[in-house]
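User: Please predict structures.

Assistant: First:
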Amino acid sequence: MLVAQRGYNRGLPPLLSGTCSVTDPRLPSDPRTLIEPRTLKGFRDHLPPQALAREGILDIARRVYRSYGFVPIDTPALEYLEILTGKGSDETDKQLYRFTHGGREVGMRFDLTVPLARFAAQHIGTLGIPFKRYHMATVWRGENTQRGRYREFMQCDFDTIGTTSPLADLETVLVVHDLLSAIGLESFTIRINDRRVLSGILERLGLADRSTVVLRALDKLGKVSPEGVAAELAGHGIDAAASADLLKLALLSGSPDSVLDALEPLAGGTAPGRAGIDSLRALLDGAGQADVPAGRIVVDPSIARGLDYYTGLVLESFLDELPALGSICSGGRYDNLAGLYTKQHLPGIGASLGIDRLLAGLEELGRLETRETAADVFLVYFDEAHRGNYLRIAAALRRAGMAVEMAAEPKRVGQQLKVASKKGFPLALDIGRDEFAAGTAQCKRMKSQHSTVIDWHGDVPVLVKAVAAELAAVRLGG
């Protein structure tokens, strides 16, 4: 008896005689236990629409950063544990992913600023100062997840190392403003403060040695009620009168000039307080000279930034329509951070775009573009006899700077256009047998469904120029 063979010449065993004929498609069941496909809590997959949106914002950030002269760097995801611990706060130390590997204690970076300090201390002799860098990379924090906040997320930083110039502070605020504007945001507010103002009032109240607990308590305003913050301060032994002064400072609001005037009696009588107030006034004056719209920057004495390394300007940025979302771009000056790794004084200032939180906000507001393709043009593949012509046209469009996706198989035009519409292609280019014979092409704007007939008569450069014009019109809202 002939035995039916399975997987001829593929190294698979033959089927048992009599159990299955060559016309019977049934195969023995797979004895393996399947692993459930799932992600860890606080970690996410990014499908094409979300990944494309994120890459689009990163491209904008890269362009804005470079327009101010910042250059890219990269650092390892893993650092020696001693590099990371104690450099942010007790809270970030608790959130740190750490483990032992090869007898070495290592940790995964929780932000990009501490690795920058190590990087600058190690390489500044080669880099020179001031050194302006940007860095876009993933960081990890084992914290509680919430809206727009995950355990694995991307930061998009820029920093200036090696100068205490007030212009560096101003430029940081201007970059944040230009970045959020370039992303297309119209209603946002940049809230600024200076840690020296807070240091001034602490000095006046005799609490200079309690700055860490005070600043962390004040940093919770907005998430915790003033009464809750007062209770936390009381728990640290701070009396009611001092607590009332601290809350009075933190809850000041109004125009920048009115807030700064109100800060004078609270903190202006001390050297650090005076320096902080004067610095804020100079920054606001410079922002006005750089044509930042009035009201876009607000002085907010409650902005403390919980990380211990900030020493001067601190800033946070909020979507006006979603203030509860939290800051989408934050940072400040840290003049002593690199001192942990080098005796050379390397002051720094910078900020970080919280891209995942921003994307969550844009999605909630319904302003997140949901394309499933990175291509500009979908080239309908209808007539297999003209396969070579399609390939030449696609290549010519790409050489002209357009991204083109060609259908994989010559299926019905309607079916291909349905897929193109679903994926969000701006344009579809349809050239069938009749169009090739007539020297024409149908160029369809997928969103408006407007079609244009292009007369190109086999002249590919003419076709490319016409498609480029159509794409330009679509990008202008046509």
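Second:
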Amino acid sequence: MKFLMSILFILCVQIASAQTAKPATLFGAETYDIHSNFINSDIRFSVSVPQGYDPKSDKKYPVLYVLDAFYSFPIMHELHKMMAGETEPVIIVGIGDDRMSLPEWVISRYPILNFDNVPYEDSFQVANLLRGAPVKLHSGDGTLYYNAIKKEVIPFIESHYNTNEDRGLTGHSLSGLFTSHVMFKDNGYFTRFGINSAPLFVNDDETLKLERQFFESKKVLKGKVFISAAGLEGKNLFEKRANNLANALKSRKYKGLKIESIIFPDESHVSVMAIMSSRTLYSLYGLPVDRSIGKGHKADK
């Protein structure tokens, strides 16, 4: 009997040991932390390489830099694998830290994704988004954050991975606003832009002012731009501004510029995240292939 009890005890220990929780990881992704002298803190970014990527090969790849990696990188990383036959091979770099709570993420991203210091927006976000929490928000560190991305993150990526100079930048919400400003403030460094659910109304429609100034300076705008908003975000706040920006760019008739815009009906500011990610990926890197499924099946009559 004692022998049997001993055997049962050993089996129970083995089963319990086998069921011990392990930290989840994204298969095929790599993560780095580097110190930024511009924002005086560490920046975390994660990298997803395309299928068949060989670091020893001479083949070079475009890079899509995805902001708000707190939530966006896992989505893009997995979509990237599933859409391999529909999009060109691209290295995806998610910039942002996922080792924090949702409130911490909201607060930490706010100053660095705003190029302009707008006291009204600071107080509005505390009162509404943070429900009057005893914190202070101070916008306007966008230039520092952009310098950190351009002069610290990207040189690291381009020295450690097989990249070319075809760079894309995409973001949602505040990072979409950030992306829209980069498009006009430093055009040419990036040539593919995903501007999704961006609060373009900030600072009295600052983005539209930048667009007009850019056009009046007779600069050339080339590449691909994808602009989107969600139907439940408010027709005047997000939908109207997204359409205004898309229509303004289309009216300029820039040679070599491809613009796609869409409003996703029945989606909220957060539920739209997944669908806008897949559409951004295809709009900026889509291949001219037949994307339908089931053709020729006997049930397809």
